[in-house]
Amino acid sequence: MEAVKINDEIKKPLLADLIKASLYVGATAYGGLAMTAQLKKKFVEEKKWISEKDFLDALSFAQILPGATFVTLMAYVGYRINKIIGAFIVPFFFILPTFATIVILSYGYFHFAGIPYVVKVFAGLGAMVVALLINAVSTVGKSVFPKLSFKYYKGFLIAAFVFVFSFWFKIGMIYLIIAAGVLGFLFYYFTGEFEGLEEHKQTELNVKKSTSSLSVNLLKYGLLIAIIVAAISILSFFPLLGEIFTSFFKIGMFSFGGYSSLPLMQHESINVHHWLSLKEFSDGIAMGQITPGPILITAAFIGFKVAGIIGAAIATTAIFSPSILLIILLYELHGKITKLPVVKVFVKGILAGFIGLLIYITVSLGVVSLINWQTWVIFVLSAIALIRFKIDPLWIILSTIVLSLIIL
Asked: N or C: which end of the chain has fewer CB within 10 A?
């Protein structure tokens, strides 16, 4: 028997079935919206472990929380199905296949990087990554600015502010993200530029009513928090591992979605700790695209460079922890938090700021990756394939590898 039937529609799975389904999605889901479709197909349509309405609620909640959107979504689905155990199990086995793949690829990269054909492949992939980032700027930009119109001038100003202060003044990324959120609040809150204005008073009332239940939940999860504190205390005895954990936990805590994490990851790994070069970082992004699952798995590549497989495991754990912890702590309030105007305008400012950060990292990687006519050819062809013809990135990656071996 695969699952225990709760009612006519929703089923509660056995633990082994939940693990198998999570592994399957983690091993086969590639790229943004495709991952959403794969998860929905497996958990909603095939297994019927969660309703479509709950799934859509989970998706909307995951989009306003920091961290890896799809890991947050998996944690929500897991919590909905099997409470705290599900919130840990589903994301863990979702990430496991891509973690194993990136560790193997990282080992090969750092041990055989000098081989000529490997150099050619990663030079081509570096050019492809620039096209990928331009496509990300376009895709994410359309969700923040539906069209190029003066109507969205406030968002453009926030994006320009963040780009200028990151590119020319080298201000810390986290400070810029907080500043973008504050600007979003100042620009939008007092003019009522958020959806659901009529729900404002009722939402605030509901949140106040839920405060006591939140306090109960915080006490209930006190043991969980104690375990986290204990883990951090243990890591304090190993300074390098502690630095890895702290850096990637910050990235997970202050980024929204996959591509928005890349500027933070670049800042921490290159500007702050000097763990790898800009070229290596570009190659790490390419590996994050080659593997299934979330692009934040690039953290494992960086962690592997710094401290081998242990570093990869700690970096991966750290960057995805905020997604899981926030779901556990805020699950009961998710319907109300998503409607709070102050949350909406703050996130609105942050998302506009991330456009500026994405442009910054695109320019930075373009400078080191587009170094001759061959890389420019790969870049242009990749950009056309992604933006004009909407070809799946996996096929573009495979084509880039072949083309790189031919012309580079």
From this structure: N
